[in-house]
Amino acid sequence: MSTQTAPKTTTAADYLAFERKSEEKHEFVNGQIRLMSGASRNHNRIAANIGTLLGVGLKGKPCEHFISDMRVKVASGGRYTYPDLSVVCGGPEFEDDVLDTLLNPNAIFEILSKSTAEYDRGDKFASYRNLPSLKEYLLVSQDAPQVEHFTRLDDGAWRFNPTEGLDSEVRLVTAEVVLTLRDIYDKVSFEGKEN
């Protein structure tokens, strides 16, 4: 693995060659390579909880989930991201035989932080909406038990379903999995209180 410095601007092919040798993760947006920052305890706990719930909920179904190390190619022009979690049903498609860049996620989860919330709700979601396979986008707060669930309708419009409170649940349409917020937020601390 390399710790080389990322070039300021590059092509998608150069980004992939660089990224596959890097010890750190980088997103690729508009010809720019962006270093990704580390995650908080709450972020990691939530991601682990959702991953576990998806693993159990998808058992025996023609779907699989990926954690944040699976890169997603969002645009042919070369936008690449690392969603916190993604789900694909009916078989994953990859960019090449390295099998590290997913092309057809059906659901994407992003765990919000103060530094990424605006990007995740704005530019990143706008970009994700261009993925024909994407049917669901879930933004998970790490500061309170809240999930913003967006579902693509048959006419291409997006429906917003906010969910709040530990006694609530989120139903994944694409994978027919129910996630309770109590399980998503197991062992997550809000303002110094353990749940």
Automatic annotation (TrEMBL):
<dbReference type="InterPro" id="IPR011335">
    <property type="entry name" value="Restrct_endonuc-II-like"/>
</dbReference>
<dbReference type="InterPro" id="IPR012296">
    <property type="entry name" value="Nuclease_put_TT1808"/>
</dbReference>
<protein>
    <recommendedName>
        <fullName>Putative restriction endonuclease domain-containing protein</fullName>
    </recommendedName>
</protein>
<dbReference type="Pfam" id="PF05685">
    <property type="entry name" value="Uma2"/>
</dbReference>
<dbReference type="InterPro" id="IPR008538">
    <property type="entry name" value="Uma2"/>
</dbReference>
<feature type="domain" description="Putative restriction endonuclease">
    <location>
        <begin position="13"/>
        <end position="171"/>
    </location>
</feature>
